[in-house]
Design a protein that fits this description.
five-stranded mixed sheet; 2% strand; globular
Length: 940
C-alpha cells in the first residue's frame, strides 16, 4: 500500500515539472515542525493545488495559527487523496461536525484502508457516539496494523499511540503505559528527531497520571523543538495550574492563544481559571462565547457548562424545563456513554466543594463509561477530602488496580497506610489522629480544641453537623511530615504550608517534625483551620477563598506581622495589589511566596475594613449571602448595601491609609547613584542632595568622597541627620567613637529622628555599657516607629544586659504579642513572672510557650511551678509528669511532682516519686527529708 502511494506521487511529479522538488517539501516540513509557519507556508503554497503533501503541510501551518477555515479550503482544493480527507476528518471532528468527519473518514478509507489518521478518527467518532464496541475494534485495528507491519512514519506512530492508550485504558492493559512512553514515542523520535508531537503526547500521558516532573520534561523537550506549538503551551499552562503557579499558567495560556486563538484547550483553561476564582458567571460566559463555538459537541466544554447550571440553579434545574436537564438530555441523546461529560461536571463541582453533587456525577460518569479510569480515582480522592477514609480506601484500591501509574492514587493509598499507624481519639468536639510519637501534642491539641471549637461555633452562629477530623503528620515510612500532610490534602507532596482544611478535615504537620525547621504556633494554626471548618460548611462551601481566609486570619488574634506590613507598604507604593478578582489565586495558586504573603495580609485587611466600615454584623450578613449561593458581585450588595465596585474603592483607600500609618516601614524613594551625582553637581548648595550622595559614596566604600560631601552638607545644614550619620560612620572607622556619638547627638531631631542615625547613636551607647542612654534612644525609636520591632528587640537586649527585669518584661511582652512563633520571649517572660511571683502571668506565658514547643521540658516545669503556686494541683501534677517524661534525668521536676502529690493528698504516689528521685540523685536537696516526713506521718 505504501508503494502504491509512492508511485502515485512520482507520477504526479513527473507530469508537473514546475512543482516544488522533494527537498523543498522536506525543508517546508522542517520549518513546520520548528513552528516557523509563515516560512513553511511560503514553500507549501505554490504547490498546494497539485501536490497532496504541500496541501497537507499548508493546511497544518494554517491550522496551527487558528486559521481553520483557510486550512479546510486548502485541503478541499487539494484533490481526492486519502491523507487530505483524513486531515479534513480530523479538523471536522475537532470542530464538532461529526457528520462531515464521518464523510471524510469514509472517503479516506475508500482511497486507502490503511490510512491511520482516518482510522484513529473513526474510532473517536464511534466513541463519542456511544458505539463503544465499534470504537474498541477501530483502536484494535490500529494496534494490529502496528504489530503486523513496519511503520516508518513518526506521524503514523502518533495515531497508533493514541489508539493504544485508549485501548489500554479500557482494557486495563497497564504495561502499555510504559511501552508508549518508553518505546513507541521514542521510536517516533528516532524516525524523525524533530517530531515534537511525540514529546507532547508522552507528556500528556504523564500529566494524566499526575507525574508532573516527567510531564514537564516532555513538554519542555517539545518546546525546544517547536517554541510555537500552541497546544504545548496550553499543556504547560495546565501543568502550572497543578503546581499552583497562576502567573506562569496565565503566561503560558496567553502565549498559546497568541499563536492559535482557536485552540479549544486554551479556552477551557481560561474558564477553569474563572471557576477557580469563584466567578461562575464569567466562567459560563467564556464557555459559551469562546469554547462552545470551537466545538459545540465537546463533552468537556458541556460538562463545565452543566456545572455552572448546577451551581446557579441547583438540581431543581435537572428536569426537562431546567438548563441542566436540557443540556444533559442533549448530550446523552448524542452519546449514551457520555462519561467525559459527567466527569468534567463532577470535577468542577468537586473543585467548588459541592460534595453530594460531585459524588453523584462521578458515579454517573462511572456508570455511563465504566472503562474510563479517571472518575473512580477522583471519587476516592473526594471521599478522602471528606474524611471518609475507609470508604475511600476501597475506591482507591480499585482505582489503582485499574491504573497503577496514577501518582495521586498511589500517594493517597500510602497516606492511608500512614494513617493506619496513627493513634485516634474520638472526643465530643473532634476526632484527632496523631503519630504515637506525638502523644503529648495530641493531648494538648485535644484540650485546646475542646475549648476552641464551641467558641467558634457560637461566634459564627453555626455548628457543622459532624465533628471535624484533625490529623497531625510527622516523619514516617521514609517521608517527612510535610510530604505526608501535602499528600493527604492533594495527593502530591509539595504544598508550601504547614496546615490546611477541606472544610471537613484539618491536616497539619507536627511542629516537632524534623523537617519543619523553626517551630510554629500550632494552636494558632488550629484556630485558623477550625475557622475554615465552620465557615466553609456554614456557606455550603460557597464562601470564596479570600473571605474564609480573611475571617481565619482576623480570628487568630495577633497583629499583622512586620513582614506583612513591610510588604503592604511597598506594594501600595508600587500599585501591585490584589483585588476581589485576583486575590483568590494568591492563596490557592500563588505565583510567588511574596504573593502568598500579600494575599493573607490583604485578606486580613478586607476583614478589618468590612468590620470598621459596615460593623461587626456585616460578617454574618456576608456569610449568609454566600450561604444563599450568591457570587461576590451579588453577595456584597445584598449584605452591605453597596456595589462591589464601591466596596473595592473604599477598601483601596483603607489600604492606602493603613500603609500611610507605617512610616517606619516605608521604603524611601531613592534615585540611582548616577542620578544623585548629576543632581548634586547641578545643585551643590542642596544639603539633602549632598547628604544622600555622601551616603551613596559610603555604601560603595569611597570614604574620602563620603567624608567631604557629608562635611559640605553639615556646613550647609549643621543638623543634617543623614550627613551626620555618614560622618559618624567614618569617625568610627578611625576609632573616634566619642566624637561620632557627640556629632550624632548634636544633630539628632528628637521629633523626627533619622532611623539610621538614631540606631547608630543607641548602639554606640550600648557598646560603652551606658544602658540608660541606650535605652533612652532606642525608646525614642520605638515611640516614633511603633510598628518597627527592631527598636523593641534592641530595648529587650539593653534591659537584659542592665538587669532591668521590669522593663525587660514590658519589651518582651510587646514582642510576644506581635510574633506568634516567638518561643524565646515567652520562655523568658515565664521566668520573669515566676521571679516576681506573678503566678497567673507565669502560667499564661508558659501555656503560650507550649503552643509553640509542647516538648520543652523546661517550660512544662515552669508551668507546673506556676500552677502549684496558684493551688491548681491537678494540672500542676500533669505538667510535672510531662516534664519528667520529656527529661527523665532531671531531678527538679520529680521533687516538684512529689510535693504536688503531697498537697493533693496522694502520698503513696509521692513516696514512689521520691524513691525514684533518690535512686537517680541520692543527695538531691529536699528529697530525703520529705520522704522521711511522709514515713513519719504513716499510721502505726
Amino acid at each position: 500500500m505504501q508503494g502504491s502511494r509512492l508511485i502515485g506521487v512520482v507520477a504526479v511529479l513527473a507530469g508537473l515539472p514546475a512543482l516544488a522538488p522533494a527537498e523543498s517539501m522536506e525543508d517546508a516540513r522542517r520549518l513546520w515542525l520548528e513552528g516557523k509557519y509563515a516560512e513553511a507556508s511560503e514553500i507549501y503554497a505554490p504547490s498546494a493545488g497539485e501536490l497532496p503533501a504541500a496541501a497537507l503541510g499548508l493546511a497544518r501551518c494554517l491550522a496551527a495559527e487558528g486559521k481553520l477555515d483557510d486550512a479546510v479550503a486548502t485541503l478541499e482544493a487539494g484533490g481526492e487523496h486519502a491523507e487530505l480527507h483524513a486531515e479534513l476528518a480530523r479538523l471536522a471532528f475537532e470542530r464538532g461536525d461529526r457528520r462531515k468527519a464521518e464523510r471524510h473518514v469514509e472517503a479516506a478509507l475508500g482511497l486507502d484502508p490503511a490510512q491511520l489518521l482516518a482510522r484513529w478518527i473513526e474510532g473517536e467518532l464511534f466513541r463519542t457516539a456511544g458505539r463503544l464496541a465499534e470504537a474498541e475494534r477501530a483502536y484494535a485495528r490500529l494496534i494490529r496494523h502496528y504489530n503486523e507491519r513496519e511503520i516508518t512514519s513518526a506521524e503514523s506512530l502518533r495515531w497508533v499511540g493514541l489508539a493504544a492508550a485508549r485501548y489500554a485504558e479500557w482494557n486495563r492493559a497497564h504495561d502499555q503505559f510504559r511501552f508508549l512512553v518508553g518505546e513507541l514515542y521514542p521510536a517516533s523520535l528516532r524516525i524523525e528527531p524533530a517530531y515534537w508531537p511525540a514529546h507532547y503526547e508522552a507528556g500528556r500521558l504523564f500529566l494524566k497520571k499526575y507525574n508532573q516532573r516527567d510531564a514537564a520534561r516532555e513538554f519542555q523537550a517539545a518546546l525546544a523543538l517547536n517554541p510555537n506549538a500552541a497546544e504545548v503551551h496550553a499543556a504547560m499552562a495546565r501543568l502550572a495550574l497543578d503546581y499552583r503557579d497562576v502567573r506562569q499558567a496565565e503566561t503560558s495560556l496567553r502565549r498559546a492563544l497568541e499563536i492559535n486563538p482557536k485552540l479549544l484547550e486554551a479556552r477551557l483553561l481560561g474558564a477553569d481559571l474563572a471557576w477557580a476564582n469563584f466567578r461562575p458567571q464569567e466562567a459560563l460566559q467564556l464557555l459559551r462565547d469562546e469554547a462552545l463555538s470551537l466545538d459545540p459537541a465537546c463533552e468537556e466544554t458541556l460538562g463545565r457548562m452543566a456545572a455552572c447550571y448546577v451551581l446557579e440553579d441547583g438540581l431543581d434545574g435537572e428536569g426537562r424545563g431546567g438548563r441542566f436537564g436540557r443540556l444533559a438530555d442533549e448530550v446523552t441523546a448524542r452519546n449514551e456513554h457520555a462519561g467525559e461529560f459527567y466527569f468534567a461536571l463532577a470535577e468542577w463541582l468537586s473543585a467548588r466543594h459541592r460534595i453530594s453533587e460531585a459524588e453523584r456525577f462521578y458515579r454517573e460518569a462511572m456508570r455511563r463509561m465504566p472503562r474510563q479510569v479517571g472518575p473512580a480515582a477522583a471519587l476516592g480522592m473526594l471521599w478522602m477530602a471528606m474524611g471518609q477514609e475507609e470508604r475511600a480506601k476501597k475506591q482507591l484500591l480499585e482505582a489503582r488496580e485499574a491504573d497503577p501509574f496514577n501518582v495521586r492514587t498511589t500517594n493517597m493509598l500510602s497516606v492511608l497506610e500512614v494513617l493506619d499507624g496513627m493513634e485516634a481519639v474520638d472526643r465530643e468536639q473532634v476526632v484527632l489522629r496523631f503519630d504515637p510519637a506525638d502523644k503529648l501534642l495530641g493531648r494538648y491539641a485535644l484540650r485546646y480544641i475542646d475549648k476552641l471549637y464551641p467558641e467558634l461555633c457560637e461566634q459564627f452562629g453555626y455548628r457543622p453537623p459532624d465533628k471535624p477530623l484533625v490529623e497531625i503528620f510527622r516523619t514516617a515510612r521514609g517521608g517527612s511530615g510535610r510530604a505526608w500532610f501535602s499528600a493527604r490534602m492533594t495527593g502530591l507532596p509539595y504544598l508550601g504550608t504547614v496546615a490546611a482544611s477541606t472544610g471537613k478535615i484539618v491536616a497539619m504537620v507536627s511542629p516537632s517534625d524534623a523537617g519543619v525547621g523553626k517551630p510554629f504556633n500550632w494552636a494558632r494554626v488550629l484556630r485558623h483551620e477550625m475557622v475554615h471548618v465552620v465557615t466553609l460548611q456554614q456557606t455550603r462551601f460557597n464562601i470564596p477563598h479570600w473571605y474564609t481566609e480573611a475571617l481565619a486570619v482576623h480570628g487568630e488574634g495577633y497583629p499583622r506581622p512586620q513582614a506583612w506590613n513591610e510588604l503592604l507598604v511597598r506594594r501600595v507604593s508600587e500599585g501591585e495589589l490584589f483585588d476581589l478578582g485576583t486575590i483568590n489565586f494568591g492563596f490557592s495558586r500563588p505565583s510567588s511566596g511574596e504573593d502568598w504573603q500579600l494575599a493573607y495580609c490583604q485578606a486580613e485587611l478586607y476583614a478589618e475594613y468590612l468590620i470598621r466600615r459596615h460593623g461587626p454584623e456585616a460578617v454574618g450578613a456576608l456569610l449568609a449571602a454566600y450561604a444563599d449561593n450568591l457570587a461576590t458581585a451579588e453577595a456584597i450588595p445584598r449584605a452591605l448595601g453597596v456595589a462591589e465596585e464601591e466596596f473595592e474603592r473604599g477598601y483601596r483607600a483603607y489600604l492606602a491609609e493603613a500603609a500611610g500609618s507605617l512610616p517606619g516601614l516605608a521604603v524611601p524613594t531613592q534615585k540611582s547613584f548616577a542620578e544623585l551625582l548629576a543632581a548634586q553637581r547641578e545643585e551643590p548648595r542642596d544639603a539633602e542632595l549632598a547628604a544622600q550622595t555622601a551616603y551613596g559614596y559610603l555604601r560603595r566604600g569611597a570614604y574620602e568622597e563620603a567624608r567631604q560631601l557629608s562635611a559640605t552638607a553639615l556646613e550647609l545644614a549643621p543638623r543634617q541627620q543623614l550627613a551626620a550619620y555618614v560622618l559618624a560612620r567614618i569617625l568610627i572607622r578611625g576609632g573616634q567613637t566619642d566624637q561620632a556619638a557627640q556629632l550624632l547627638e548634636k544633630s539628632l531631631d528628637r521629633d523626627a529622628p533619622d532611623s539610621k542615625a538614631l540606631n547608630l547613636l543607641a548602639a554606640l551607647k550600648l557598646k560603652t555599657d551606658d544602658y540608660a542612654e541606650a535605652a533612652r534612644w532606642y525608646q525614642l525609636g520605638a515611640c516614633c516607629e511603633p510598628e518597627n520591632l527592631r527598636w523593641t528587640r534592641a530595648l529587650a537586649l539593653v534591659h537584659s544586659k542592665s538587669g532591668d527585669d521590669e522593663r525587660l518584661a514590658e519589651a518582651l511582652a510587646v514582642l510576644a504579642r506581635a510574633e506568634a512563633n516567638d518561643l524565646a520571649s515567652r520562655k523568658e517572660l515565664t521566668r520573669l513572672a515566676l521571679a516576681r511571683r506573678d503566678f497567673e502571668a507565669a502560667a499564661d506565658w508558659a501555656n503560650q510557650a507550649l503552643w509553640i514547643d509542647v516538648e520543652d521540658a523546661e517550660v512544662h516545669r515552669a508551668f507546673a511551678e506556676a500552677l502549684a503556686a496558684g493551688h491548681n494541683e491537678t494540672q500542676a501534677i500533669e505538667e510535672f509528669l510531662a516534664a519528667t517524661e520529656l527529661d527523665p534525668t532531671a531531678p527538679a521536676p520529680r521533687l516538684g511532682l512529689a510535693e504536688a502529690y503531697v498537697r493533693a493528698g496522694r502520698t503513696d504516689e509521692a513516696r514512689r516519686v521520691l524513691e525514684d528521685l533518690l535512686r537517680l540523685a541520692p543527695d538531691y536537696p529536699g528529697a530525703d527529708p520529705l520522704l522521711k516526713a511522709l514515713h513519719e506521718s504513716d499510721p502505726p
